[in-house]
């Protein structure tokens, strides 16, 4: 029986094409709204927060604007007013109905920020209605609790945002993403070997750096919520500052990297260190170098680093779905979770 999660993973190329077709023509709207701003503030929770990490690295690395992640409790619990003049506040919510995120975006606007919503909830969602500009993704209804197509289309919307901020990237790279994702779904690499390597363990360290850090966080979240693993998502820089002590023969590492970029060699070196200590290192992406240094590997996309996270997460999604079934868990309906999470 095909799970809803597996079906929705397969829908991602079409969802990405539809989203890019809708949003790329709106780059000038982003540029106009952002003209008088100097920095960005990302507002999100959960999977959307991981997407925001991608947005932060992308904007700082390629658009040259300082970016940060909001603490929504400053708005909703402490009710503290800040000076957000010159700030572009970007709120992400797949449903567009998470009250805390809507409230925080309204607060940001009242504090002087220009506001953008990124949501799959449509133009009529509360988040879209609250924003100066709504970038609505076109992933379609997502029925499985673990987000897949709504996450990758969020990344696509953030890539469009970067274009509107005049990022030093090739806009044509975006059009290559849906085909690259389609190829990864057809050939994700040695999923079975990685599933067997994780089937009996209680925990795993998931690590990447830079633009791939968002993928490491999202992969760890998926393994936690759908496979009930104690999955720790870390930058490999932070991992080396102590937590690497937990990596051993009972706690493997899942290491993520694009096939190019300044963080690749550090990820390869980390894989060699892990396997040299007698533990298992499973690679995602990183080309032949990371695959050779790893115990087993999943494929990555043939994409430039700035758009690679839209492809890198796909093998991790397929791994999560397969591992959940291997562990006797229904990945569509993890215990204790709902599709829309409300926080105060």
From TrEMBL:
Enzyme class, spelled out: transferase
One GO-annotated biological process of the protein: carbohydrate derivative metabolic process
Chain positions covered by the region annotation Disordered: 325-344
EC number: 2.6.1.16
Domain SIS: 29-171, 194-334
Pfam families registered for this protein in UniProt: SIS (PF01380)
The name this protein goes by in its record: Glucosamine--fructose-6-phosphate aminotransferase (Isomerizing)
UniProt source species: Sphaerisporangium krabiense
Native organism taxonomy: Bacteria, Bacillati, Actinomycetota, Actinomycetes, Streptosporangiales
């Amino acid at each position: 029986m095909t799970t809803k999660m597996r079906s929705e993973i397969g829908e991602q190329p079409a969802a990405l094409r539809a989203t890019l077709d809708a949003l790329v023509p709106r780059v000038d709207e982003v540029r106009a709204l952002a003209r008088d701003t100097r920095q960005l503030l990302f507002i999100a929770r959960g999977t959307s927060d991981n997407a925001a990490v991608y947005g932060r690295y992308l904007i700082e690395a390629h658009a040259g604007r300082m970016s940060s992640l909001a603490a929504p409790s400053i708005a909703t619990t402490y009710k503290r007013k800040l000076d957000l003049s010159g700030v572009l506040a970007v709120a992400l919510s797949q449903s567009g109905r998470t009250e805390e995120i809507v409230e925080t975006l309204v607060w940001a606007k009242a504090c002087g920020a220009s506001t953008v919503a990124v949501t799959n909830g449509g133009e009529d969602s509360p988040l879209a209605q609250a924003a100066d500009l709504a970038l609505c993704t076109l992933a379609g209804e997502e029925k499985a609790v673990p987000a897949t197509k709504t996450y990758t289309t969020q990344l696509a919307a953030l890539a469009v945002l970067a274009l509107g901020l005049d990022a030093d990237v090739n806009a044509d790279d975006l059009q290559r993403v849906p085909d690259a994702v389609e190829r990864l779904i057809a050939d994700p690499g040695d999923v079975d070997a990685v599933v067997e390597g994780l089937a009996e363990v209680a925990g795993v360290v998931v690590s990447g750096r830079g633009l791939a850090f968002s993928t490491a966080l999202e992969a760890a979240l998926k393994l936690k919520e759908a496979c009930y693993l104690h999955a720790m998502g870390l930058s490999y820089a932070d991992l080396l500052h102590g937590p690497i002590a937990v990596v051993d023969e009972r706690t493997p590492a899942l290491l993520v990297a694009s096939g190019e970029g300044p963080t690749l060699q550090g990820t390869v070196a980390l894989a060699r260190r892990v396997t040299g200590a007698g533990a298992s290192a499973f690679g995602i992406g990183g080309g032949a170098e990371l695959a050779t240094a790893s115990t087993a590997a999943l494929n990555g996309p043939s994409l430039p680093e700035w758009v690679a996270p839209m492809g890198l997460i796909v093998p991790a999604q397929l791994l999560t779905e397969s591992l959940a079934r291997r562990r006797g868990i229904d990945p569509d309906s993890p215990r204790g979770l709902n599709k829309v999470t409300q926080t105060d």
